[in-house]
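task queued by scheduler; priority normal; single chain, no ligands, no partner chains; default sampling; output format set to structure tokens
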Amino acid sequence: MKKIIFTVAAACLLCGSVFSESKMILIKGGTFLMGSPASERMRDADEVQHSVTVDDFYCDAFEVQQSDYEKLMGENPSWNKGANLPVDNISFYDALEYCNKKSAAEGLTAVYKIGGKNAKFPDVSVDLAADGYRLLTEAEWEYACRAGTTTIFSTGNWNNPKDANYEGSYPYLIEENYVRRTNPNVQPGLNRGKTVAVDSLSECVRALQYARKCERVGF
């Protein structure tokens, strides 16, 4: 399965939220085939298919907005400024700090302990028994993104700028269709050249439609 990368490090956080901007939903656990088939073109070597079982977990339906991030962290390091835009230009450690501060703000136990002698690359330990926020595991992330699908993308076998924000002029398999357009599904599209507001694309509507099958968390 191909993954569309958003410019946000703290994209999906676990557990409930008191912030109205959050759309936390309960993703019911299950077993799925993680990775991609060997026949899939342009796949990476580490995408070997294997069966994975995940437990129930909570996930924000959308990326972390800059307004939410600044409210907790006291700063907004994003290159693309906008209160309702996804936060960007943050490190992995920034994302962990955000999780811990969000946990503290809601009276929850922090999952991460960050420290050590190396200030640039501190040691990180994880308390999985804690009830606070954490980043999703790779398996949880793929399970949530697939939303029960088995296609190359969660929206089908071809990507389209109406479903996600990426370099639309460079779609999947365009390399094979530069000179001769032999595949009608490979169509260059809109390249917005900028980030877009959270919850502004049609894929978000599909995500919420799928979420209705899950138990919503009240605020």
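post-processing summary
- The first strand starts at residue 24 and ends at 27.
- Residues 1-21, 212-219 have pLDDT under 50 and may be disordered.
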